[in-house]
Specification:
It is a single chain. The protein has about 475 residues and is mainly alpha-helical. It has 19 helices and 11 strands. The protein starts with a strand and ends with a helix. The relative contact order is 0.09. The chain binds one RNA strand of 77 nucleotides through α5, β6, β7, α7 and β11.
RNA sequence: GGCUCGUUGGUGAAGCGGCUUAACACAGCGCCCUUUCACGGCGUCAUUCACGGGUUCGAAUCCCGUACGAGUCACCA
């Protein structure tokens, strides 16, 4: 059995999209499932018009952040280089192969301008029949073609497809697909600027790089027979195809760059972890055999199986990603989590006298995405103005009147406290509850409101008081007592 | 319009002819735990698998048709 070789072949046209990233993930997994599988990065930049500066760096950066490390690629080399199509072109390979394909009867030279095609299209639509370009250049003699090419006339090379028969192929996901050759379009292989089209470069490169498994979106399903015809003309081995269903924004629309839908970079900047994103998208369109949902990359390599990729589009559900992100955050070892979260805490809480570690602790079971941290803990720094209505809570059986009594007693207690430990604060307050003959919530709920000025907070009264320190606790208690009086 | 593909709950999905009066997870709802919110625990949420026929003792699972959706038909990838 030959080594499995897969390739991720993006165009450098901007941010990395979720669907794209998922394709990269699947390609990586298909290769890495095997001991000696090879994952390759190839840059497809044959469309000079759409190139975006810096886009290639985003691709490198993203793969790195995701741990989808490639074994061969433009930045690290390999035995099948170059790995950028515009560089490959320099040797004239695509042109040579295109001409060779002509000799083999799989292609022909075409001098038609857009007008000729347009004209035929109009006639077809006028007659209400389906359009298929019937290239008059196919009838040109070899001599005439040579003469015109030599004379410097602009030309393209189009694929030649016979009208009879059918072409079938088997996709690992979608099964066997058969089409009538007559419906196949004689696509351009080599553009007039000398660049190959994606369709052609792809076939040539995949063959030259010994790619064994082609993983791509199902939008290529209908052009795959055309590629296979090229492989057949050359007498090359056809790779194993793995077409993936699209990642959708909603039932009708794919997730796309054009609509400004969230990219991988956007998600990162909103505070999603790359591991969580990857884990989540692995499950979009692929179902594991077991009920496990949280996977490390190694586990994913083990569990991944092309046969369990689905066939229908999957809607990207940010809610589930949020949940998964929270799971990752919660399950992290505290120190690792702390490193991750510290910048966000420091940004929200500038006051250095507060113990950031304690803040991180109360946050860990509650954070979902990092960017939400700010609003959760900014009350430590800036005591907000709040409404006395916050003191009304039916379940806790508190109202402003009870609150005022509790706060006054708490203040007296706090003033007398000498040992400012969480344990001591807890025990003293609990004693006070007993002394006052009220319920826990009637004391602790108002105190928490008084200290935070917020209805909901990470952590309860005791934790917050502990972090604020005795002085600030008394200060806030005073302010709240004044407000309630 | 032609061709190709798809259709299980709000979402991701399992199921591949009887074990299914359709798993699991997210979201929702309710309860418990509890000093708020979370975390954790428990329960509930499709009598039904787009629809209509057929095959079969038996169908979400096989076949045919219809509807709806997507992709493709570029010198884009």
């Amino acid at each position: 059995m030959t080594k499995v070789r897969t390739r991720f072949a993006p165009s450098p046209t901007g941010y990395m999209h979720i669907g794209n990233l998922r394709t990269a993930l699947y390609e990586y997994l298909v290769a890495k499932k095997e001991e000696d599988g090879v994952f390759i990065l190839r840059i497809e930049d044959t469309d000079q018009g759409r190139l975006v500066e810096g886009a290639t760096d985003i691709i490198y950066e993203t793969l790195k952040q995701c741990g989808l490390n490639h074994d061969e690629g433009p930045d690290i080399g390999g035995n099948y280089g170059p790995y950028v199509q515009s560089e490959r072109m320099q040797s004239g390979v695509y042109k040579d192969y295109a001409w060779k394909l002509i000799e083999l009867g799989g292609a022909h030279v075409c001098f038609c301008g857009e007008e000729v095609i347009e004209e035929q299209r109009e006639i077809a639509s006028a007659k209400n029949t389906s359009f298929k370009f019937d290239d008059p250049c196919k009838k040109l003699s070899k001599e005439e073609v040579e003469a015109r090419v030599n004379a410097g006339e602009k030309y393209v090379i189009r694929q030649s497809i016979k009208e009879e028969g059918t072409t079938s192929f088997t996709d690992e996901v979608y099964g066997t697909i058969t089409v009538d050759n007559i419906t196949l379009d004689e696509q351009v292989l080599l553009k007039s600027d000398g660049f190959p089209t994606y369709n052609f470069a792809n076939v040539i490169d995949d063959h030259m790089m010994d790619i064994t498994h082609v993983v791509r979106g199902n939008e290529y399903l209908s052009s795959t027979p055309k590629y296979n015809l090229i492989y057949e003309s050359f007498g090359w081995n056809i790779p194993t195809y793995i077409h993936c269903p699209p990642v959708m924004k909603d039932e009708q629309h794919k997730l796309s760059k054009r609509n400004g839908d969230a990219s991988f970079q956007d998600l990162l900047s909103k505070g999603y972890l790359s591991e969580a994103i990857l884990n989540y998208i692995a499950l979009l369109g692929w179902a594991p055999e077991t009920e496990q949902e949280i996977y490390t990359m190694d586990e994913l390599k083990q569990a991944f199986n092309v046969k369990r990729i689905g066939t229908s589009g999957a809607i990207f559900d940010i809610e589930k990603l949020k949940w998964m992100n929270a799971v990752y955050l919660r399950n992290k070892d505290f120190n690792e989590y702390y490193d991750l979260v510290l910048p966000y805490i420091s940004e929200a809480v500038k006051n250095d006298s507060y113990d950031k570690k304690e803040i991180a602790k109360i946050l860990q079971p509650r954070v979902t995405i990092l960017s939400e941290i700010h609003d959760m803990i900014d009350f430590f720094d800036t005591y907000p103005t709040y409404s006395n209505d916050f003191y009304i809570n039916k379940k806790m059986k508190t109202d402003p009147e009870i609150a005022l009594r509790s706060l006054i007693e708490t203040k007296k207690l706090v003033e007398s406290l000498t040992n400012w430990s969480q344990e001591n604060i807890h025990d003293s307050l609990m004693n006070l509850v007993v002394e006052m003959g009220i319920k826990n919530g009637q004391l602790l709920y108002p105190v928490r409101i008084a200290l935070s000025g917020k209805e909901f907070t990470p952590g309860g009264a005791i934790e917050i008081a502990y972090i604020l320190g005795k002085e600030e606790t008394l200060h806030r208690l005073d302010l709240s007592i004044a407000q309630l009086s």
